[in-house]
Amino acid sequence: MTEMLRVLIWAPGSSVVPGGHRVQFDHTAAALRSHGIDVNVSYDADPALDGYHVVHGLGLSPEQVRRCRVAGTTVCLSTIYWSQRYTQGLDLGMDSGRQLQRRLRLAVGSALAGARLRHLEKAEHYLGDLLRTRLAFESADLLLPNSQQEADTIQAELGVTTPSSVVPNGINGSVFGQPPSSGERDIDVLYVGRIEPHKNQLGLITALAERPLRVVIVGPPHPHHEAYFRRCRDTAGPNTQFVSDTSQEDLVSFYQRAKVHALPSWFETTGLVSLEAAALGCNVVTTDRGYAREYFGSQAWYCDPAEPESIVAAITGALSAPPDPALRQRVLERYTWEAAAEATARAYELALSRRVGPAGSVSAKESG
Asked: Would you list the domain boundaries of the chain?
């Protein structure tokens, strides 16, 4: 009898401040179990690794990848990689691993020429973190980016040679796949998500403060950014409503009542809330920084998060257009957790076959 595939999904520290990646892993794990894969999820720093065929990690250090290797497991890494062009203003170009450290030092040194010592020390710390990320990625058997564009960026900026298998983000189709409401959409602009600087709610609020639009911000403040949350509230116009706590049922209702969902983040690998909103009939405005265009193509409106005029123009365009049933269908066909689990299971089999050859001894399903 073929042995059942045993997988550990390991994301150390992700339970401290849950986010989209935590949602991604929890739902993917549940869907993988329905495919006959034995999956455990750990957010601990030091879980037991014995007995697993695959460790599927997020945010693992090179030392943690090495631990997996010593335990004899195949290692797949979800990357969630943000381009350095956006995060640090560095255009790294295409480099081999041997060239990367020199090129990074030149880029950082040029950017910080004349800076004080503490800034140079910060740059050295950043450089070390980026090189460690590269080492962890290079040490894995397979990388699992959320888009082909992300895979290409990792290869171009870090010179990583580890192969990739794209696993798209998704939504819970049983919750967010229900038919859009036929009732009135009385919310002009909806934002859903944790309130923090990266998500740029302040940019959205500032851009719309003088506009006669009903704006609803749904989500809790990030525990480390209470001051940012207060600034958002102080800047908001009289037509802006904040909802910190909501049930999943109420969240569905907010999507069904909204004409447009806006996510003007400084960077997005995709934006799970954009997918949820699209599935429930909202027109989607999202950032032009990141990989969202690979998911939405020409069926969304894109904005520059640094330009209030760009945010307003994108929202105005989305408000003036009817809902797009083809976008809803696209999301429900391609971007559910079931689809993500199928892609993940194929990736595991690919990683195992690369390591043990075609006659590997484990399978996603038991067979007699």
From this structure: 3-83+118-169+336-363, 173-334
Looking at residue 221, its amino acid is: P
How far is 164 from 141, CA to CA, in rounded Å? 9
* Residue 176: its H or E element: helix 173-176
**3-83+118-169+336-363 and 173-334 have identical folds:** yes
pTM (predicted TM-score): 0.85
- Pick 283 or 115 by higher pLDDT: 283
Phi, psi of 205 (to 5 degrees): -65, -45
* 262 sits in which H/E element: strand 258-263
Q: So what's the architecture of 173-334 in CATH?
A: 3-Layer(aba) Sandwich (3.40)
CA–centroid distance for 132 within its chain: 20
Average pLDDT over residues 83-105: 57
Q: Are strands 6-10 and 283-287 parallel, antiparallel or unpaired?
A: unpaired
Query: What is the predicted pLDDT for the residue at 91?
Result: 56
Q: CA-CA distances (angstroms) from residue 235 to 189, 285, 304, 311?
A: 16, 21, 20, 16
pLDDT tier at 357 (50, 70, 90 boundaries)? very low
Distance of CA 111 to the CA centre of its chain: 28
In whole angstroms, what is the distance from residue 173 CA to residue 350 CA? 26
- Mean pLDDT, range 261-290, rounded to an integer: 95
Q: What is the DSSP string of 333-363?
A: HHSBHHHHHHHHHHHHHHHHHHHH-TT-SEE
Please return the burial class of 143, using the count of CB atoms within 10 Å of its CB with bins 0-12, 13-18 and 19+.
Answer: buried
Mean pLDDT across 238-245: 93
Residue 366 has pLDDT above 90, yes or no: no
Sign of CA pseudo-dihedral 120, 290, 150, 40: positive
Amino acid at 226: E
Whether the CA torsion 305, 306, 309, 310 is positive or negative: it is negative
The residue count of the chain comes to 368
Q: Take residue 307 and report the two structure tokens written for it.
A: 């330009």
**Where does 3-83+118-169+336-363 sit in CATH, by number?**
3.40.50.2000
